[in-house]
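Worked problem 6 (solution included).
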Amino acid sequence: MVAVIETKRGKSRAIQISPADHGKRMSLGDFDRAIAAEGHHYELNKGVIEVSDIPSILHAVVLRTIRLAFSSFENDNPDVIHFSGGGGEAKVLIGAFGSERHPDWAVYISPPPTDDPQPWNEWVPEIVVEVVSESSRLRDYEEKPPEYLALGVKELWLVDLEKKVVIRKTRWRGLWKDNVLKGSQTISTTLLPGLAIPLKTIFATRKKKK
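Solution. The predicted structure is:
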Protein backbone atom coordinates (compact mmCIF):
# COMPACT_ATOMS: atom_id res chain seq x y z
CA MET A 1 0.00 0.00 0.00
CA VAL A 2 1.08 3.58 -0.51
CA ALA A 3 -0.32 6.27 1.77
CA VAL A 4 0.52 9.96 1.60
CA ILE A 5 0.98 11.65 4.97
CA GLU A 6 2.24 15.00 6.19
CA THR A 7 5.66 15.20 7.83
CA LYS A 8 6.67 17.74 10.50
CA ARG A 9 8.11 19.97 7.76
CA GLY A 10 4.83 19.96 5.88
CA LYS A 11 6.04 17.84 3.00
CA SER A 12 4.18 14.71 2.02
CA ARG A 13 5.82 11.34 1.80
CA ALA A 14 4.58 7.95 0.71
CA ILE A 15 4.33 4.96 3.01
CA GLN A 16 4.94 1.65 1.29
CA ILE A 17 3.20 -1.31 2.92
CA SER A 18 4.10 -4.82 1.86
CA PRO A 19 3.42 -8.31 3.25
CA ALA A 20 6.45 -7.74 5.48
CA ASP A 21 4.37 -5.17 7.39
CA HIS A 22 1.99 -7.82 8.70
CA GLY A 23 1.48 -7.15 12.41
CA LYS A 24 2.58 -3.51 12.34
CA ARG A 25 0.38 -0.76 13.72
CA MET A 26 -1.21 1.96 11.56
CA SER A 27 -3.96 4.51 12.02
CA LEU A 28 -7.30 3.88 10.35
CA GLY A 29 -6.99 7.18 8.48
CA ASP A 30 -3.63 6.29 6.92
CA PHE A 31 -4.74 2.76 6.10
CA ASP A 32 -7.93 4.01 4.49
CA ARG A 33 -5.96 6.29 2.16
CA ALA A 34 -3.45 3.61 1.24
CA ILE A 35 -3.26 1.73 -2.06
CA ALA A 36 -2.60 -1.99 -1.70
CA ALA A 37 0.29 -3.75 -3.36
CA GLU A 38 -1.07 -6.51 -5.55
CA GLY A 39 -0.98 -10.20 -4.74
CA HIS A 40 -2.25 -10.20 -1.16
CA HIS A 41 -5.31 -9.33 0.92
CA TYR A 42 -5.00 -6.45 3.42
CA GLU A 43 -7.18 -5.49 6.36
CA LEU A 44 -6.70 -3.35 9.47
CA ASN A 45 -7.63 -5.24 12.62
CA LYS A 46 -7.93 -2.90 15.60
CA GLY A 47 -5.06 -0.76 14.35
CA VAL A 48 -2.88 -3.68 13.28
CA ILE A 49 -2.14 -4.52 9.64
CA GLU A 50 -3.18 -8.04 8.64
CA VAL A 51 -1.85 -9.48 5.40
CA SER A 52 -3.15 -12.78 4.04
CA ASP A 53 -2.87 -14.74 0.83
CA ILE A 54 -5.41 -14.41 -1.95
CA PRO A 55 -8.24 -16.89 -1.18
CA SER A 56 -8.35 -20.32 -2.79
CA ILE A 57 -10.19 -21.16 -6.01
CA LEU A 58 -12.88 -22.94 -3.93
CA HIS A 59 -13.42 -19.73 -2.00
CA ALA A 60 -13.75 -17.84 -5.30
CA VAL A 61 -16.20 -20.37 -6.78
CA VAL A 62 -18.46 -20.30 -3.70
CA LEU A 63 -18.36 -16.51 -3.61
CA ARG A 64 -19.23 -16.37 -7.30
CA THR A 65 -22.34 -18.49 -6.66
CA ILE A 66 -23.43 -16.11 -3.91
CA ARG A 67 -22.70 -13.06 -6.03
CA LEU A 68 -24.73 -14.44 -8.93
CA ALA A 69 -27.67 -15.10 -6.61
CA PHE A 70 -27.67 -11.50 -5.42
CA SER A 71 -27.20 -10.25 -8.99
CA SER A 72 -30.19 -12.30 -10.14
CA PHE A 73 -32.29 -10.83 -7.31
CA GLU A 74 -31.19 -7.31 -8.28
CA ASN A 75 -32.17 -7.93 -11.90
CA ASP A 76 -35.63 -9.05 -10.82
CA ASN A 77 -35.96 -6.29 -8.20
CA PRO A 78 -34.03 -3.31 -9.56
CA ASP A 79 -35.23 -0.81 -6.93
CA VAL A 80 -34.53 -2.82 -3.75
CA ILE A 81 -30.73 -2.96 -3.43
CA HIS A 82 -28.90 0.33 -3.79
CA PHE A 83 -25.45 -1.26 -4.17
CA SER A 84 -23.66 -4.54 -3.54
CA GLY A 85 -20.04 -5.44 -3.98
CA GLY A 86 -17.03 -7.44 -2.84
CA GLY A 87 -13.84 -6.58 -1.02
CA GLY A 88 -12.38 -4.76 -3.99
CA GLU A 89 -15.47 -2.58 -4.43
CA ALA A 90 -16.64 -1.84 -0.89
CA LYS A 91 -15.04 -1.44 2.49
CA VAL A 92 -16.37 -1.22 6.01
CA LEU A 93 -14.70 1.27 8.33
CA ILE A 94 -15.23 0.66 12.05
CA GLY A 95 -13.75 3.72 13.71
CA ALA A 96 -14.58 2.63 17.26
CA PHE A 97 -12.37 -0.44 16.77
CA GLY A 98 -9.78 1.14 14.48
CA SER A 99 -10.54 -1.52 11.86
CA GLU A 100 -11.05 -1.54 8.11
CA ARG A 101 -12.76 -4.64 6.75
CA HIS A 102 -13.23 -5.76 3.17
CA PRO A 103 -16.16 -8.21 3.27
CA ASP A 104 -16.44 -10.95 0.68
CA TRP A 105 -19.83 -9.42 -0.16
CA ALA A 106 -21.68 -6.42 1.23
CA VAL A 107 -25.28 -5.46 0.46
CA TYR A 108 -26.40 -1.84 0.87
CA ILE A 109 -30.18 -1.53 0.75
CA SER A 110 -30.26 2.11 1.87
CA PRO A 111 -28.54 4.84 -0.18
CA PRO A 112 -25.36 6.44 1.19
CA PRO A 113 -26.01 9.17 3.77
CA THR A 114 -23.63 11.54 2.00
CA ASP A 115 -22.82 12.71 -1.52
CA ASP A 116 -19.14 11.97 -0.91
CA PRO A 117 -17.84 9.61 -3.64
CA GLN A 118 -16.07 7.74 -0.81
CA PRO A 119 -18.94 7.33 1.70
CA TRP A 120 -17.48 4.33 3.57
CA ASN A 121 -17.00 6.22 6.85
CA GLU A 122 -20.76 6.58 7.21
CA TRP A 123 -22.39 4.00 4.92
CA VAL A 124 -23.29 0.78 6.72
CA PRO A 125 -24.28 -2.35 4.76
CA GLU A 126 -27.44 -4.13 5.84
CA ILE A 127 -26.00 -7.57 4.99
CA VAL A 128 -22.38 -8.74 5.13
CA VAL A 129 -21.26 -12.11 3.77
CA GLU A 130 -17.95 -13.69 4.78
CA VAL A 131 -16.78 -16.96 3.22
CA VAL A 132 -14.88 -18.78 5.96
CA SER A 133 -11.75 -20.71 5.04
CA GLU A 134 -9.22 -22.32 7.37
CA SER A 135 -6.91 -19.29 7.29
CA SER A 136 -9.73 -16.82 8.02
CA ARG A 137 -11.58 -18.81 10.68
CA LEU A 138 -10.39 -16.75 13.66
CA ARG A 139 -11.08 -13.43 11.96
CA ASP A 140 -14.50 -14.39 10.63
CA TYR A 141 -15.85 -16.15 13.73
CA GLU A 142 -14.32 -14.12 16.56
CA GLU A 143 -12.89 -10.79 15.43
CA LYS A 144 -15.29 -9.45 12.83
CA PRO A 145 -18.77 -10.22 14.29
CA PRO A 146 -18.45 -7.83 17.29
CA GLU A 147 -17.27 -5.07 14.95
CA TYR A 148 -20.11 -5.54 12.48
CA LEU A 149 -22.59 -5.68 15.37
CA ALA A 150 -21.30 -2.42 16.87
CA LEU A 151 -21.38 -0.72 13.47
CA GLY A 152 -25.06 -1.54 12.90
CA VAL A 153 -24.94 -4.31 10.27
CA LYS A 154 -28.31 -6.07 10.37
CA GLU A 155 -27.26 -9.52 9.17
CA LEU A 156 -23.95 -11.38 8.95
CA TRP A 157 -23.71 -14.58 6.92
CA LEU A 158 -20.76 -16.87 7.64
CA VAL A 159 -20.39 -19.40 4.81
CA ASP A 160 -18.16 -22.14 6.22
CA LEU A 161 -16.37 -24.06 3.47
CA GLU A 162 -15.07 -26.83 5.72
CA LYS A 163 -18.26 -27.51 7.66
CA LYS A 164 -20.54 -26.84 4.67
CA VAL A 165 -22.90 -24.75 6.78
CA VAL A 166 -24.11 -21.16 6.65
CA ILE A 167 -24.50 -19.35 9.95
CA ARG A 168 -26.97 -16.49 9.50
CA LYS A 169 -26.52 -14.00 12.32
CA THR A 170 -29.34 -11.55 12.98
CA ARG A 171 -29.61 -8.80 15.58
CA TRP A 172 -31.57 -9.65 18.72
CA ARG A 173 -31.55 -7.55 21.92
CA GLY A 174 -28.19 -6.01 21.05
CA LEU A 175 -26.50 -9.33 20.30
CA TRP A 176 -26.13 -11.70 17.39
CA LYS A 177 -28.63 -14.54 17.21
CA ASP A 178 -27.36 -17.54 15.20
CA ASN A 179 -29.37 -19.62 12.77
CA VAL A 180 -27.29 -22.55 11.51
CA LEU A 181 -28.31 -23.80 8.05
CA LYS A 182 -27.06 -26.99 6.43
CA GLY A 183 -27.87 -29.83 4.08
CA SER A 184 -30.89 -29.21 1.87
CA GLN A 185 -31.88 -25.97 3.61
CA THR A 186 -32.11 -22.58 1.89
CA ILE A 187 -30.83 -19.25 3.13
CA SER A 188 -33.18 -16.30 2.86
CA THR A 189 -33.75 -12.99 4.61
CA THR A 190 -36.71 -10.78 5.43
CA LEU A 191 -34.58 -7.84 4.32
CA LEU A 192 -34.83 -9.08 0.72
CA PRO A 193 -38.16 -10.88 0.25
CA GLY A 194 -37.91 -13.38 -2.56
CA LEU A 195 -34.18 -14.04 -2.26
CA ALA A 196 -33.52 -17.73 -1.59
CA ILE A 197 -30.20 -19.50 -2.06
CA PRO A 198 -30.14 -23.31 -1.68
CA LEU A 199 -27.09 -24.45 0.28
CA LYS A 200 -26.68 -27.32 -2.17
CA THR A 201 -26.05 -24.69 -4.82
CA ILE A 202 -23.48 -22.88 -2.70
CA PHE A 203 -21.54 -26.00 -1.78
CA ALA A 204 -22.01 -27.90 -5.05
CA THR A 205 -18.92 -29.92 -6.03
CA ARG A 206 -17.39 -28.78 -9.29
CA LYS A 207 -16.06 -31.76 -11.24
CA LYS A 208 -13.44 -31.49 -13.91
CA LYS A 209 -14.66 -31.91 -17.43
CA LYS A 210 -13.26 -34.95 -19.22
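Discussion: The mean pLDDT is 86.
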